[in-house]
Amino acid sequence: MIDEKKAFDLLMEAAPDVAEKIREYVAKEIRLYAAAVLAATPEAGTGPRWIPCKEALPEKNIRVLTSISGTDLIHLQPGETLEEALERCRKAYTRVSIGFYGSDGWYGPDGFPEIAAPCAWMKLPEPYEEEEA
Questions:
Q1: Most buried residue among 6, 84, 94, 107 by CB atoms closer than 10 A?
Q2: Residue 120: strand, helix, or coil
Q3: pLDDT tens track of the chain, all 133 residues?
Q4: Is 90 exposed, middle or buried (0-12, 13-18, 19+ CB in 10 A)?
Q5: What is the separation of C-alpha 84 from the centre of its chain, rounded to a whole number of angstroms?
Q6: For residues 24 and 33, is the Cβ–Cβ distance under 8 A?
């Protein structure tokens, strides 16, 4: 297993400009996620809710919060079939991300196709606007 902190430190040394872009991207995604979670906190039974993809899909090319079970990286264990590995990874890896539904499937926050498609989605909150005094 790779030590993620050590790997990031090595990246910082080898390519600080790339590492800084990764850091900025992750910080932006965390801010968007936090805003969505705060907006989704139901008050008196109102507010956004998770919508199962089986129930409905969002408008095309509109960013939404996604709940994904599975991973884009599959590691086969000795003697394991691909179907078994997919099921194991689906159960082990659940994440929340930001993505959009395009003309030919789901895309992640980076604009690349999602291999593990979302099982549910939620509208993002409106951006914060400072009130005029």
A1: 107
A2: strand
A3: 566 667 667 767 777 777 677 777 776 776 666 666 655 555 545 567 899 999 999 999 999 999 988 766 677 889 988 888 877 877 777 788 899 999 899 998 888 888 778 999 999 888 888 888 6
A4: middle
A5: 23
A6: no
Token pair 């395009």: residue: 102
Which residue in this structure is represented by tokens 């089986």?
54
Q: Which of 52, 36, 60 is closest to 120 using CA atoms?
A: 52
Name the token pair of 101.
Answer: 């539904």
Which residues, other chains included, contact 102 with Cβ-Cβ below 8 Å and sequence gap of 6+?
60, 61
Residue 13: phi, psi to the nearest 5? -70, -45
Nearest alpha-carbon partner for 95 in 68, 63, 116: 68
